[in-house]
Amino acid sequence: MKGKCKICANEYTQSGMSRHLKSCLNKNYEKIIEKEQSQKSLYYHIYIKGTYRSDYWLQLQVKADAKLSDLDSFLRDIWLECCNHLSEFEINEQRFTSSGFNMSNKIKDVLREKSKFSYTYDFGSYTKLDLNIVNVFKAGEREGKINVLARNKQPEIKCSHCDNPAEFICPQCKYTAGGWYCSDCLDKHEKNDCMMNEFEFLPVVNSPRVGVCAYSG
């Protein structure tokens, strides 16, 4: 699954984006720093993908003094939040939960270059993510502690009943082969033995939580 680099606007495959960003960050930040004469800060380049839905991925630039709670909030806002569920990072077998105080730890105090860790949102209908520190680098100060470097393009998901792109998903029928619908095929859901109606369908969105709980993007 391809995605677009937010720095140069070129598209790369999921496997090639991390390699590209290492080069693109070095090349472009040298110019930015010279031009703006801004003071350098330490940043983490973090690659994130759905554990079970790896077509959905993000590459982020996260300031070293950002807290785990900042990353938690960012992931909720861009990908996950639906009903204010609990969440948790697992780093080196240590758990950092949204219900406790240890999410106040700073990124630089718990993560190192090449660190791999995981994140779970919602412990009922959960969405799990895999995270990897690709690089740690210095760059000019940016607005915001967390910025998107690259993101996957919307996966092409077809309607289960025709060749049109799917626009809606039935949260119950998604467990069968017929859960995806375009607007022209919504009436075909009536033939299914399902308690849901079309007003309870969820939109197809660019997130590993698509079709889960009440997530609508």
From TrEMBL:
<dbReference type="InterPro" id="IPR024047">
    <property type="entry name" value="MM3350-like_sf"/>
</dbReference>
<protein>
    <submittedName>
        <fullName>PRiA4b ORF-3-like protein</fullName>
    </submittedName>
</protein>
<dbReference type="Pfam" id="PF07929">
    <property type="entry name" value="PRiA4_ORF3"/>
</dbReference>
<dbReference type="InterPro" id="IPR012912">
    <property type="entry name" value="Plasmid_pRiA4b_Orf3-like"/>
</dbReference>
<feature type="domain" description="Plasmid pRiA4b Orf3-like">
    <location>
        <begin position="54"/>
        <end position="142"/>
    </location>
</feature>
